[in-house]
Write a structure and sequence with these properties.
The chain has ten helices and four strands; from the N terminus they run H-H-E-H-E-H-E-H-E-H-H-H-H-H. The radius of gyration is 32 Å and the shape is elongated. By secondary structure, the protein is an alpha+beta fold.
Amino acid sequence: MRAQFVLSEIGVGLRRNLTMTFAVIVSVALSLALFGGALLMREQVGAMKDFWYDKVNVTIYLCSKNDAGGGAAGAPASGSCAKGAITPAQKDEIKADLNDLPVVEKVYFETADEAYKHYKELYGDSAIASIITPDQMQESYRIKLKDPEKYQVVSTAFAGRAGVHSVQDQREELETLFQMMRGMNVAALCVMALMLVIALLLIVNTVRVSAFSRRRETGIMRLVGASSFYIQMPFIMEAAVAGLLGGVVACGLLLMGRYFLIDGGLKLEETMPVVNFIGWDAVVSVLPLVLVIGLLMPSLAALVALRKYLKV
C-alpha cells in the first residue's frame, strides 16, 4: 500500500510539473551526452595514438650533392653537409650504428629514386612537382622504433653527424591533430559542466516548486507520524525518474552519433580509412556509467534541496 502511494505521488508530481520535468530531462540528456562524448573522444585520441605511433618512423635524411655549398635555392649548407654528398663508408657506418641501438626495431634505406617516386605519388598534382628531379631528392634511413617515445635517442646519436642532413620524427606531424582533438575534448567538458549546472539548478527548482505545491499533503503526513524518509521519497523518486529518462535519451544520442558519424550518414570509416575509429564496444561500455550518473545525480540534488525546502 505504501509503495502504491509513493508511485502515485511520483506520477502526480511529474504531471503537475510537466514543463519543468521536460526541461530537466533535456538538460540532463544534453549534459550526459556531452560527458559520454568527451569520454569517447578521449578513447578515440588514445586509439589513434596507439595506431599511428606504432606506424610512424624516425627518418634520417642524408646529405646529397646539392647540399654542398648550398642547395638549388642557394641556401647555405649545414656543417655536417659542407663536404657534399654522403660517402658509401659513412652510409655503412650509420647503418651499423643504427642496428646496434637497442631502441631500433628495423632500418629501411630509401634511395633518391624511391623518394622521388613517393613524392610524385603524394604531390604529383602540385606545381612544384613538375620541376623536381630525382637527383634533388635525399636518400634516407627510415627507422622503426620499438618505443616511438624514444625518438630522442636517435636524434642525439645522429643529428649533426657527418653525412647526416637532418633527423625528423614523424610524430610531430601528428601532434597538431592530437592537440586539436584534445582541445575539442576540453571544450566538450566545459560545455558539459555548464549544462550540468543548469540541470542541477532546474532539479532544485523543480523540487522546490513541487514541495511548495504539496505543502498541505506533507503537513498532514507529518501530523499522522510519517517518517522523513517516507515524505521525501516521492520527491527524490521524481527527480530520479526524470534523470533516468535523461540518461536514456543521452544513451540514444551517443548511439545515434556513433552510427551517423562513422557507419551511416557521414560514413567517416569509408571516407577516412587511415583513421582507426573506436568500435561499438567502446560506446556500449560508456552507457552504464551515463545511466548511473543520470539516476544518482538528480536524486542527490533533490535530497540536498529537500533539506532546505521541505522541513520534516
